[in-house]
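I have been asked to look over a protein record a colleague put together. Alongside the sequence sits a line of tokens, each denoting a local backbone shape. Please read both lines and tell me whether the tokens look consistent with the sequence. Take the sequence as given and treat only the tokens as open to question. I have pasted the whole thing underneath without changing anything:
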Amino acid sequence: MAKVNIKIEGHSYQVEEGLTILEAARECGYEIPTLCAFNHGECSLASCRVCLVEVKGARGLVASCVYPVNEGMEITISSPKATAARRASVELILSNHSLNCQQCDKNGHCELLYVAQITGAREGKFQGEKTPVTIDQLTPSIVRDTSKCILCGRCVARCQAAHGTGILGFEKRGFNTIVAPADNRSFSESPCILCGQCVSVCPTGALMEKSDIDRVDEAKKAGKYLVVQTAPAVRAALGEEFGMKIGTPVTGKMVAALKRLGFDKVYDTNFAADLTIMEEATELLSRIQNGGVLPMITSCSPGWVNYAEYYYGDQLDHLSSCKSPHQMQGAIIKSYFAEQKGIDPKDIFVVSIMPCTAKKAEAARDEFKHDGITDVDAVLTTRELAKLIKRSGINFNKLPDEEFDQDLLGEYTGAGVIFGTTGGVMEAALRTAYYVLTGKEHEAVKFEAVRGMEGIKEASININGQELKVAIASGMRNAKVLLDQIREGVSPYTFIEIMGCPGGCINGGGQPFVKPQFLPNEDLDILDTYKEKRAAALYSEDERLALRQSHNNSQVQELYAKYLGKPNSHRAHELLHTTYKARVRFPQK
């Protein structure tokens, strides 16, 4: 791309043509405060006015987040006029903001507090009436508090960019403007998929996950037998909450922390990921061989399942009937594990540590009960786990590396680990499908064609002379392309993997916030590469494991021999499979 010459604070620089002033300044070592711009190429229409700068020859101050650089431009960030304007913008935002910072869940990651500090904004400079408040906490997943909303629009932009659904928008007018689902409905009364991408980009505490920490505390107080399981993506991001570089795998320290938090058993959901592959691969091969509905689509992502039920209710027979891995594991803990350990399932409290806010709503579904007992009792996000660890005074960085409990449900393979990234479920399934169809392991183990962060990927795999055409999508905007092909009867695929969040679980709505101002030791490109770095952490764990195919998990084999019989058996269907139902997008208020 062509370069242009600019000056910032009197110093000359060459930058790429087409960058905004904000982006160019970052590349040149300047950090202009902003609240509405949140990622390279993503900005919500310069609404916050916190990034104002002076440009020689321009009429008045300009918003650096949307103003493009051009040849010879001279930019001043620190002039008294620009400094005063930025401070006034923040003070006006604070005048209509709930200032209970000590109780706010976003404390320590609040961008408004950060820019207030660096602009020198004064609390109480402007006083007056405040916008009427809506607090929506009706879903198990997300809490919306308009008293903390600054109308930056980042959540609106992210929902549209990731999913194309436009769940959030600006409601009402003037001083009464709020950000909400249509008609200021609750998330529970809208076709929101509860993925939490809006939470990930909210600069304040206006959008947060609904915490289950108190429920875990109550279960411990009640003397429940506490079993915790951790999703693969958690280990790839948890270290960020303790100052580690993005992409640092912390499996051993995470296990050590969970054992010190008082859980009776600490297991990895990867065991159930291997179990999922056995069920899902068997289901796929059965559909292929018996003329079943194709393409079959994975069902591990509850955000994606929510989307399918709202928008593609006529295509639900394409979804695998498999529960997601953590729900499978919960069901096995409260049946097989309980039986083997001689514990009443009613006395077991299963906690899932997940990178996802949609998992909270998934665990609450009526379909995930067996004989009136829920598979999973509470879901904590990666961020909530970090809060628990910090609350308990545990020095995470000094913990030794410890191993998951190994009895009954402790073994897992590399195939289970890579479930946490887009393409991982597909690759794990192909490793086992290849073995089932050929009777031998795929020599290279890895299926490179299904890896990467592209929104849509496709590949053709030749297994024993049979061509298997597959596709992978993450983010519902991308999934829609593949789903419309199915609806129109022109899909060329046999098997499709879909994940709700762009990039997969590593970028889930419950993962640590990726905000450069709170990550001073990261590279400038972190907003572009954090997903790849987290994915690399999972692939590295896959490669270091001796077993990398789900069908080689000896404890899964033992589970079938002792309890389930075989994949897709009657008992397996009772415990590990589910059904889906079309949902009304806008129920009557």
